[in-house]
User: Which sequence fits this backbone?
């Protein structure tokens, strides 16, 4: 059984930074396409970023240049470095297994319970 556990969320001021981490149980992050999805209050899920098994990375236009996705194969973790945070980044962030297409399409792929990011002054 696959279990994804996120951590690292919190409350920050605009312009601040956070690093989210995801520990996957039951899978090896370097063998699969992985990514991050977020959901703001009252809105549907939004794809944020993906990294393929070969290491290719992509980002939503809304976070490009501010967020960086990475994985640590030795530690078997997935991370999302978030800089220059804006109030509109406020959301529950989920770590997910799946291709960018699957995550963008909100397909039923394995994901964690999420970690809350709140950006407010």
Assistant:
């Amino acid at each position: 059984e696959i279990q994804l556990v996120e951590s690292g969320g919190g409350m920050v001021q605009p312009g601040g930074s956070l690093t989210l981490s995801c520990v996957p149980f039951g899978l090896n992050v370097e063998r699969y396409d992985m990514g991050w999805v977020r959901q703001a209050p009252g809105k549907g899920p939004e794809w944020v970023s993906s990294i393929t098994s070969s290491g290719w990375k992509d980002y939503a236009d809304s976070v490009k240049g501010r967020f960086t996705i990475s994985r640590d194969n030795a530690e078997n973790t997935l991370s999302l470095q978030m800089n220059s945070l804006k109030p509109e980044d406020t959301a529950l962030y989920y770590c997910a297994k799946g291709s960018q297409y699957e995550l963008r399409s909100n397909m039923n792929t394995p994901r964690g319970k999420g970690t809350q990011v709140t950006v407010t002054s």
In short: Residues 7 and 21 are 5 Å apart (CA to CA). The longest helix spans residues 100-104. Helices lie at 100-104. The radius of gyration is 13 Å.
